[in-house]
Write a structure and sequence with these properties.
It is a single chain. The chain is built from 5 helices and no strands. By secondary structure, it is mostly helical. It is elongated and about 50 Å long. The termini are far apart. It is about 55% helix and about 0% strand. The longest helix has 22 residues. α2 runs antiparallel to α3.
């Protein structure tokens, strides 16, 4: 049986299961692994419920890195104001990763 990061209240329901509290290194790795799992679930199901899990994991990772949810949202807003969002559905038909230039470079 493999280990799995679970939400805080889940262990209250399954108290009989062996568990431990992760150290920083394990916690970050498990958060990333769980994020990948939830993105995979969303890709398959397309359900908004999976987006909620993805957002919660992003919040947990930000807080782990010392970034408050408020600061994270400000960073998101600042980036959206500077670079835009994804509402216009623009897709580049060809991208050369060897010659990719960042948006910041284009602004000069």
């Amino acid at each position: 049986m493999k280990k799995k990061l679970v939400r805080d209240k889940i262990h209250e329901i399954y108290q009989h299961r062996p568990m431990h509290v992760a150290d920083d290194k394990e916690y970050e790795l498990e958060l990333i692994k769980k994020l990948q799992e939830e993105v995979g679930k969303y890709k398959i199901s397309g359900k908004a419920e999976e987006l909620v899990d993805i957002i919660e994991l992003c919040y947990a990772l930000a807080e782990f890195k010392g970034v408050s949810i408020r600061d994270l949202d400000k960073m998101r807003t600042d980036k959206a104001n500077k670079r835009g969002k994804f509402k216009k559905r623009i897709i580049f038909d060809e991208v050369d990763p060897e010659r990719a230039v960042g948006f910041e470079d284009q602004q000069q």
